[in-house]
Design goal:
The protein is an alpha/beta fold. It is 42% helix and 14% strand. Strands 1, 2, 3, 4, 5, 6, 7, 8, 9 and 10 form a 10-stranded parallel β-sheet that branches.
Length: 328
Amino acid sequence: MNWIIELTDKVLNGGEVTRGEAERLINVSDDDTMLLLAMADKIRQKFNGNAVDCCAIVNGRSGRCPENCKFCAQSAHYHTGVKEYPLLSEQEFVDAAQKAKAAGAVRFSIVTSGRGQSKADDFENICKALKRIKEEVGIEVCCSLGILTEEQAFKLKELGVTRYHSNLETARSHFPDICSTHTYEDKMFTIHNAQKAGLRVCSGGIFGLGETPEQRVEMAFELKRLGIDSVPLNLLTPIPGTPFENNKPLKPLEILRAYAVFRFVLPKALIRTAGGREVNLRDLQCMALNGGLNGIMVGGYLTTGGRSPQADKVMIKDLGRTVTHPVL
C-alpha cells in the first residue's frame, strides 16, 4: 500500500510515473483498488479541481461505413441491424444541440460514420450547421468526422470549433487485431492536422477489445506522447453481428483501475467516462468520478442509449461536484 501512496506523492509534486510503475498500478488486487482510486482522485483534485465536464454527441450520419473495426455496429462489413441514414439536415443538427444543452451538456459534437467526408457537399453542410449552432444555441461545438485534411481542420478552427475527436481506439500493438482498412498512422495524420490548425484534440479509446492491462497503459503513454489533454474512455458494449459480439465484459473494478491509472499518467487531462458506462459499471458509475475522472458523456451514444441526463445531474450533485461552463 505504501508504494501506491509514494507514487501519488511523486505525481502530486510534479513528477511522472514510468510505464513500469503504471503497469504495476493497473494490476493491483481488488483489495487495494479502493486505495488506488482514492489516490487517483487526489491527483484529480489538485490538477483539475472539482468540476465535472459534461458533453453530448449526435450521430450525424449512420451506418454504411467502409471501415472494418471489429467493435462497430456501423461497419458495412457486418450485419448488425443498425439504423442507416444520410447526413442530417442543418435544422436536425441545431435541434440536437439544443436538446444536448437542455440535458446539461456544455459541449456538443457532430459525429459521422465513414472514413471521412467523401461527398463534396457533406463537409460544407456540416460547416453550415456548426455556424448556426454557435450562433443560435450557445454551446461549445466539436466534431468527429473521420480522417481530416489540413484544409478541413483550418476551416473548422475558423468556424469556432474547439476540439476535434479522433480515437486511437486501443494500443498501437493491438490495433492490427481491431481494424485492417485503416492504420494507426491514419490516426496520426488526422491528429497532427487538427493540432496544426490549433484545435484541441480529443482522443481515447475503448476498453474490452481483447487488450491486456499493459496495452491499456501503452495507450495512455501514447496519448501522453501526443500531448492529448482530452481523453474519452469507452467500454465495449458487444454488438450482435460484429466479430466482438461474444467478448467477455470487463469487471467493474478492472475498469476503475484502468481509469485511475490514466489519471496517474495524464494528471492534468480532462478524462471522461463515455460509451458503455451504464452497462459495464452499473451501480459503480459514481466511483469513476470519485476515482480520478472529471468528465462524463450524457444523453446516449452513437448506436446505444444511455441513462437519463437527470440521473447524471443527481449523481454529480450527490458527489458534491460542480459542472464546467462552455467555451464560447
